[in-house]
Amino acid sequence: MITVVVLDIEGTTSPTSSVREDLYGYTRDRLPGWLAENQGGAADSIIAATRVQADEPDADAARVADILINWLNTDVKSEPLKAAQGIICAEGFRSGALHGEFFPDVPPVLRAWRAAGLELYIYSSGSVRNQKDWFAFARGGDLSPLISGHFDLSTAGPKREAASYEKIASAIGVPADQILFLSDHPDEVDAAVAAGWTAIGVTRPGEPNQPRGSHRWISDFAEVEPN
């Protein structure tokens, strides 16, 4: 019996374009200035972590900005990049420059699942901070009360490794066979199944990832009946 649903964001609850163009664009424009202005404060841990990941121990703030923007452009799943993006985009959400965008079927189905007693969690490569803002500042109204918790690369690990899903199940405190995962990425679906979860692939028109493997694939959340 499914008691928990864990959701990916990009390509699953939300259009990839809204993440890549809006959030990434906002971050790309502001990242160099933010790093330069916040040395000696919030930028220090991000600069240090980027130096380690890039194996460039002497990189200054300008070089770190170049590295992070390159990772952003090539969709590298980097913890310091996601942390910086979360901080920078927080201002955009609060100013009204950014909004969480969702496929039309998602909000009503999430409300129905929550009303039916299911616990809803998010697992995305975007930082927990970005995830919370994405739901709180959703276009059309705040969806954050529907979500019981959030997981990202720093709290759970890489999304294509079964151990990450085992860690999430342990943190939530429910058996693996009570968790349903929805994602548009076949490798993530594979990893969740390897951890003992039930997983369904999500394939929507115009999205980049294509179905693969023997998993069930849907194009609308209304097709899912968790129980």
Strands, total number = 6
Tally of contiguous helical segments: 8
- Oligomer state of the chains in this structure: single chain
Strand content: 5-15%
Summarize the structure.
Helices cover 45% and strands 11% of the residues. The protein is of the alpha/beta class and 227 residues long.
Quickly list its features.
single chain, about 230 residues, alpha/beta, 6-stranded parallel β-sheet, 8 helices, 6 strands, about 10% strand, globular
What does the model show?
With 227 residues, the chain is of the alpha/beta class. 45% of the residues lie in helices and 11% in strands. The protein has eight helices and six strands. It has helices at 16-37, 43-54, 61-73, 79-95, 106-115, 128-136, 162-172, 186-194; strands spanning 4-7, 119-123, 149-151, 179-183, 198-202, 217-218. Strands 3-2-1-4-5-6 form a six-stranded parallel β-sheet, sandwiched between helices. Helix 1 runs antiparallel to helix 3, helix 2 packs across helix 3 (61-73) and helix 2 packs antiparallel against helix 4 (79-95). The protein is globular and about 55 Å long. 38% of the residues are buried. The model has no long low-confidence stretch (mean pLDDT 95).
